[in-house]
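Q: Predict the assembly, please.
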Amino acid sequence: MEPIKKFTGKTIHLPHTDVDTDQIIPARYLKVTDKKGLGEVVFYDWRYDADGNPNPEFLLNKPHAQGATILVAGHNFGCGSSREHAPWALQGFGFQAIVSTQFADIFRNNSLKNGLLPIVVDKATHEQLLDLAVEDPDLQLEVDLETQTLTLPDGRRVEFPIDSFSKECLLNGVDELGYLMRQTGAIEEYERKNKK
Amino acid sequence: MTPRTLFEKIWDAHVVSQAEGAPAILYIDLQLVHEVTSPQAFTELRNRGIKVRRPDRTVATVDHSIPTYDRSLPIQDALAAKQLDIMYANARDFDIRIYDRMSDKQGIVHVIGPELGLTQPGMTIVCGDSHTSTHGAFGTLAFGIGTSEVAMVLATQTLLQRKPKTMNVRVEGTLANGVTAKDIILALIAKIGVDGGTGHAVEYSGSAIRAQTMEGRMTICNMSIEGGARAGMIAPDETTFNYVAGREFAPRGAEWDAAVARWKQLPTDDGAQYDAIVELDANALEPMITYGNNPGMGIPITARVPDPDALGDVHQKAALRKALQYMDLQPGKSLLGHPVNVVFIGSCTNSRIGDLRLAANVMKGKRVAENVRVLVVPGSQQVKRQAEQEGLDKIFREAGAEWREAGCSMCIAMNSDQLEPGQYCVSTSNRNFEGRQGKGGRTFLASPMTAVATAIHGVVTDPRSILS
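A: Predicted assembly structure:
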């Protein structure tokens, strides 16, 4: 995983609440056996009509959405299925961070493991970000993971929470599987003691 | 000693280590693997030259993308066929037991785990599938994980986990005739919302839970994730032990006695504290049905579809409006009498032998309404055989329903079992998300009894109307 520290990115908004992972990537696209190319099918059923033509009304088909790296999403984003294809698909489109008032647990975990930053803000800040995104199609936000701050165009800085372990992993590109592999001694001891 | 909850006892017994500020390293007793969320995990192991640490604690099957038509026919979908082949190759190369498409023990991963006796009280169980919470019905800590985590468990038999909060859902009282476990869980999710359980492990308790069979308990725990909770659990008791006893992988003889003695220590101690408590009155429950595009959008079957204008929150209002537009429903109207095109009886929520008996009992001697397609998809090949021995398949077939091979089928619509755009379906599955049962398809979630009553009349029907 590539380390994440600080980046500024074009920010777009999808205000729907409870967006489930079946919308982020419909199940019929889960027959892949690798992680590549999923950006093309992210939000497929909202993005394309029955004949596969782009729906011009949908956010990701709008000109201003191209090149966006930050998505301000509605409450409880990523609920439903555990498919890690959801963060893979969002990253495939180019997103590096999702901002919401709450993420579903499994989606949040999956995102962190792939370096897609889930940023939780309070309701008032969330509403303000949604308003800003409506007013300014070219909204840019700055994300600084080190200081855990989101900087708005007017210079206002909003802090966001992230547990110290996840932060360390993201900042240094720590590989969690590698970390667990180094715990083999403790795992063997646990198995011996507990007759596993 | 401080009184502990069922969750805390299992958690404490599985912490390998816990460094300051870091998540716990949690030992996993059993990982279930299927074809859809595992290929990239095995690739990761291959790339790093890592073996599966405990093949004996890993069991695979194929359920999501396999067709439910005759097993002797070749798989028409090349992508699905490739995914299955990769699953078989991974199982072979990493020395993992697999119940493949031709196995007489193949089935939905959350049906075969309990059925084979792999699922046992006190265990930690994971699978790359959010409905892993099903196994919590046995007093296990069981939850869904992503593919990166599948790789971690394959490689180390452990996971990095933060301790969730605990929530106790108490369901007291007696269910009325025609009201089932499915209605309990749909009523709960309608009450707490699809994010109500986020960050929590839920323990279900109370007389209405105790009165449930293991099948009913699995239905309830299965849909915990639809309320946002990764894990749902029920303390093991005699009902649990009787279900597990004698199954293929259950302990035997002296080992069985020792296991039961251990399992009896698992229930929550008197005085143990939960972070949240939710109460539900079983006496007041009616058959439930959903009208919208998440499982929290549910109502008693005699109630009316809510009005977006009556909601205060602007985002909730917008969500309901969007759902009613997708479902093409009018606020203020009842769903009773609404025509349906398809009825689906199956999925890891409601495809066990108990569910099929319940459904067949209502279906017996009746005919499916004209122009309604009814799919009955047993959860496993063992369930299928059992049902056939009992003649349930005949009841369904004679009524005009399709009797199919085991798999996830129209719950996730990865195979050819799909709704057509605009079609309505009463489904015993767990998700009514947009397009879940096929692009443009519209799902009403309900119990197997409501599903059969609807199949007979061709319109959404209160199951109590045909019971009396």
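The longest strand of chain A covers residues 6-14. The beta strands of chain A are 6-14, 70-73, 97-100, 117-120, 140-144, 149-151, 157-159.
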